[in-house]
Amino acid sequence: MPASDARYEMLERDAAAAASAIREADDVLVIGHIDADGICASAIASRTLERLKKKHDVVFVKKLDDASIEKVNGSRASLVWLVDLGSGYLSAITRQNVIVADHHVPDPGWMNGQTSLFDFSGLIHVNPHTRGMDGSGEISGAGVTYMISKAADEKNKDLAYLAMIGASGDIQDQAGSKFIGYNRKILSDAEGNGDIEVISDLRLFGRETRPLTQFIQYCNDPVIPGLTSEYTECSRFFTELNIELKRNGSWRAWSDLDDDEKDAVKISLIERLGGSGIERLIGEVCVLPRFRKGTELRDAKEFATLLNSCGRYDDAPVGLRICLGDKNALSEAAKNRSEHKKQLSIALNYIKQNKIIREKKYVQYFHAHGEIRDTIVGIAAGMVLGSDGIRNDIPMIAFANADDGVKVSARADKSLIIKGLDLSSAVKTAAERVGGFGGGHNIAAGATIPSGKEYEFLHIIESVIETQLT
Ligand code: C5P
Ligand code: C5P
Ligand code: ZN
User: Which sequence spans correspond to the domains of the chain?
Assistant: First the structure.
């Protein structure tokens, strides 16, 4: 049996143990992370519990700080089910009957052995890292939650598409421009149901809802010479190919084009790239054929971004309702979507125009103070990394003011992971040394630290990263 199957089977056994505990529970408190992955995970958990006729509540938290830990430890529910968070803070959980369904790097104290089923700790931990899998690329928080759901009842396979939206939200389809690892297994469940269609297409953002000109203009991975950031040139590009930008008074989106038009665009873009970056331009794309054409629900990336826009603006419950099929929630989410778009654009302009990025030897960083919201500073850091004129051969560390101190977000290019970079442990170590806390994934991590400790944090993280990379 291939090694990968053995790992999958072990994780499936953990998921089955969690499913049994859920069946035995009287009532359940689901605690989910506020981002797209956490919202999808919460929707899967909620639907699963509803089908089991279990009384339950869902609450969302930004991170497992003291207040959220208190929600877990102080809950009167017979079972608490954490989704897309918890693994980094296992030792803070003191109550019995807890399931942690997560894909973040676990609390090191728990790495060896203590990872399984309701042992003396009363905690079931379902996490790919404990079974030799990579939680940053092979399966998301929604994916782990889906495994538990499917173990509870095979019929819950109809929730697989939500797990894939979660994985899209966590950018798990970067390696080779497709999903890998356990995500492929979940994807095949979703394809089997007809909920997802995988096609090879342009991987730019906004296939369903962005007007064509912006669709190309905002492509920065890869940068398309002469078109990226050039609105007028992008309009001319379509005109020269005889492709109408508007039809019947409405802007056309990529999904409105016929196959001949799409081929003409692809050929032309490939020519402009002159051989580099084609594998990132064209690759696997997940279409959700059950949703109406021209809506963001029809494209996994757009769906995930809509959910993210809810979560990052204190509106995760609306995202949850979208996942559960509440039609009214869509119109309520519209304001979050436009706010997210606006805030990200302001953030990126602020970083670039004020040239606030500073370089050290092993890291680069910026401090957004109160100019960028703490909930999106990580997304902004990921977007500027490697964009025009900004290096991607060292990680980006971003700071922003938060209510409880300073929010830190760290992002890196995947090429550094192969060289030994682990942002999760670097951020955790540096944050704890300055009196804060944090964790995450090798490629993306975050923390909260006391304000005034930013430079000490930078100094420490730089030396940890130097050790990792040399
Ligand atoms: O908390 P959670 O695991 O859901 O968040 C993962 C974070 O890692 C997301 O913000 C996602 O954008 C980021 N990420 C990334 N690049 C990757 C994988 C994940 O920036 N290749
Ligand atoms: O907040 P940000 O998007 O930068 O988070 C990056 C990753 O680090 C996410 O997976 C998030 O869940 C994780 N994180 C964490 N502990 C924190 C802050 C972020 O594990 N205190
Ligand atoms: Zn996640």
Answer: 3-195, 200-315+335-348, 354-469
| Main-chain dihedrals φ then ψ at residue 167, nearest 5 degrees | -65, -35
The reply to whether CATH 3.40.50.1220 applies to domain 354-469 is no
The stretches of 74-173 forming alpha helices (DSSP H) are 141-152, 160-169
Which of 33, 84, 85, 104 should be mutated for ligand 2, with most atoms under 8 A from CB?
104
- How much distance in Å is there from the Cα of 51 to the middle of ligand 1? 30
Q: How far apart are the first and last CA of the chain?
A: 36
To 5 degrees, how large is the angle CA 389–CA 390–CA 392?
A: 130
Q: How far is the CA of 171 from the centre of ligand 3 (A)?
A: 9
Burial of 364 (0-12, 13-18, 19+ CB in 10 A): buried
Pairing of strands 27-33, 79-83: parallel
Q: Which residues pair with 201 in a beta bridge?
A: 283
Instruction: Give per-residue pLDDT as tens, 256-302.
Output: 999 999 999 999 999 999 988 899 999 999 999 999 999 999 999 99
> Which of the listed residues 84, 170, 307 should we mutate to test ligand 1's pocket, taking the one with most ligand atoms within 8 A of CB?
170
pLDDT in tens, 188-217: 999 999 999 999 999 999 999 999 999 999
SS3 292: coil
Question: How many CB atoms lie under 10 A from the CB of residue 432?
Answer: 15
Q: For the segment 82-140, what is each residue's pLDDT rounded down to a tens digit? A: 999 999 999 899 999 999 999 999 988 764 445 445 455 689 999 999 999 999 999 99
- pTM metric for this prediction: 0.94
Q: Residue 465: enclosing H or E segment and its boundaries?
A: helix 454-469
Q: Among 157, 178, 158, which Cα is nearest to 167's?
A: 178
Starting at the edge strand found earlier in the chain, the sheet holding 405-411 runs 358-359, 364-367, 396-402, 405-411, 444-449, 437-440
- Decide: residue 271, CB within 10 A, 0-12 exposed, 13-18 middle, 19+ buried: exposed
CA distance 349 to 347: 5
CATH class of 3-195: alpha beta
